[in-house]
Fold:
Amino acid sequence: MRDGGLAHGCTLGGMSSLHSAIADLPHVTYEGPSSTNPLAFHWYDADRQVEGKTMRDHLRFAACYWHTMRNGLADPFGRGTALMPWDDGSNSLANAKTRAEVFFAILDRLGIEWYCFHDHDVAPEGDTPAEAASNLEAMTDTLKGLQDGTGVKLLWGTACLFAHPRYAHGAATSPSVDVFAHAAGQVKRAIDATIALEGRGYVFWGGREGYTTLLNTDLYQERVQYARLLEMAITHARDNGFTGDFYIEPKPREPSLHQYDNDVESTLNFLREFDMHEDVKLNIETNHATLAGKSMGHELRVAAAAGMLGSIDANMGDEHAGWDTDRFPTDLYLTTDIMLVLLEQGGLGNGGLNFDAKRRRESMEPVDHLHAHIAGMDTFARGLLGAAALRADGRLREFMAVRYASWSEQLGEDILSGNATLASLEVHAATVGETRPFSGRQEMLEAIWNDVVFAAT
Ligand code: XLS
Ligand code: NI
Ligand code: NI
Structure:
């Protein structure tokens, strides 16, 4: 797709010509670590093999429609700053189509082959469910044409069940059955669009599926409602030929005070309680882990251990801010740790690395879309190289194996297989006497990490 469908200033399917603000942006290519060209990749070399697979396949980068095309970069104190000269600010279908064309041109400049969207990022909501349906159908056709013309594919789709005022008290977890019905219809339409666009996944993120005060909230009732919507969604999708994965994306708060999909462990508990753990995996976002007071490495390992790590929203937060800043990921320690988990579990299957990330309010020029994605892609490429180097070095894995070695001895096996009792272990402890202190060697391990990763990247 690098030199594909969207050449400078071309028209596509009779749409308006591509705005010069985008048409003039360069195609980003790999120039290597010695390049000082900021509009080139220094580390992401799509065809480079790492552990027998290309960087392109390991990383499967996706761009998100909402931040890239619909985020004007406003904050609670100031208006948007983003320069979007192609966008006339209207809710018309024509404007929506132009945005889609610009989005695919940005993907083309970056060589990004996957994307994600919410229904109402791409299609105007309209005033009635019937208008919402026909707008989404029209935009599905537009996106299908753009996908076919460029080879770009849909990583996952989702429904925006948090922006409309009707969802103020929740969508699936609303106290009103009529609001629940609106949400159900919207999810049906978003799933239909995802299937038509051959999406590999469908995400549930419940920004309003929570509460702001317990004085008016029946927690248990709301969680049951939420489970019902998910079950109906799975049934509808499977009945209509969807073969991809479903994901829940945990987040502890924002916009609600407390969201039911708080973190990975609480989400796994919810899925097991309602017997959906075979059908739904997790889409884990770095900034949400930060908000939950956990590291991304923790969240990923908890999901991976349960066999439920499905996809990643690749961004990062800020330890100094209590909210979802959605920065592009530029922290090498973070990306190396993420890639280590992914290499250890053999990749993501249908999932990928979706840049659910926005430029800073000050980075308002169209070219900043390129700088931001290049920074994220290069940082993940280096993370991949660092993680592969740690695995090839083997010292961390070896240290871990030795640390737990006693559990492979007879006593360890007896305990794990249920052939020991408190009484038999009391006898054993008396026989062996006091244990020797032994170090966890954290500082030594951290130094090995630095040596190996920075030598490789
Ligand atoms: C918001 C979420 C959202 C989901 C998709 O914080 O990250 O963007 O990824 O609904
Ligand atoms: Ni997200
Ligand atoms: Ni988020």
Summary: The radius of gyration is 24 Å. The mean pLDDT is 95. Residues 285, 287-288, 324, 326, 356 surround nickel (II) ion (ligand 3) (CB under 6 Å). Residues 367-393 form the longest helix (27 residues).
